[in-house]
Amino acid sequence: MGATPPIATGIAFVMLGWRAPCPQWGWIAGSGGLAVLAAAFAPPPVPVLLTVMAGIGLLAIHLDRFHHDTSRWRVMGALALYAGAALAYLAYNYYLTGVDAAVWAEAIGGQGEAQATLAQGRAFLTTLATWGLWLILPLGYLSLLAQGLLAHPPVGGKPSDTIAQVRTRGR
After folding, report:
1. How many CA atoms are closer than 13 Å to the CA of 93, on its beta-carbon side?
2. Burial (CB count <10 Å: 0-12, 13-18, 19+), residue 170
3. Domain residues of the chain, as ranges?
4. What is the rounded CA–CA span in Å between residue 27 and residue 21?
5. Are 16 and 76 in contact (CB under 8 A)?
6. How does DSSP classify residue 43?
């Protein structure tokens, strides 16, 4: 896998910002930076999920016939939240590896209790992160995209034609 997810995620964010309005460029660049960092350093399968989610987001923007800018903003925001959650898990897990059970032993009453408490905390965090990063957040993202795409019924023509028809009352 190696460098493929970070590169693909970076390309997806470049494509995301390609036709974006100017006020969104900074946000897209910042979110893209977070996403590339998460794709580069988060444990598997987060990099692959992030890349797939970015690709599906680009497809959703392409399929949306009414609100490209709104869809782009939703995709960017959701991917930034996912990348932020992955990086937060990575940082907290790194912090936990440096915690010394002997220091905790003084605070809570013994070496055995401190080691058990730290192990239990790591297991709890790993369980939450696994459920959140592998299942809950990706499914929430997909439901957000589906809601955005299915909010408007399909129409026979382009949205601009429908607006013109309504404004001219069909004449």
Report:
1. 17
2. exposed
3. 4-168
4. 11
5. yes
6. P
Instruction: Measure the CA–CA gap between 111 and 46, rounded to whole angstroms.
Output: 34
The better pLDDT of the pair 155, 119 is held by 119
Question: d(Cα 155, Cα 133) in Å, to the nearest integer?
Answer: 36
The three-state (H, E, C) secondary structure of 98-151, written as one string: CCCHHHHHHHHCCHHHHHHHHHHHHHHHHHHHHHHHHHHHHHHHHHHHHHHHHC
pLDDT digits (tens, 9 = 90+) for 90-146: 998 888 888 777 776 777 777 777 778 888 888 998 999 999 999 999 999 999 999
Q: Which two tokens stand for residue 46?
A: 């987060």
Q: What is the b/e burial string over 5-40, where b = at least 16 CB atoms within 10 angstroms of the residue's CB?
A: bbebbbbbbebbbeebeeebeeebeebbebbbbbbe
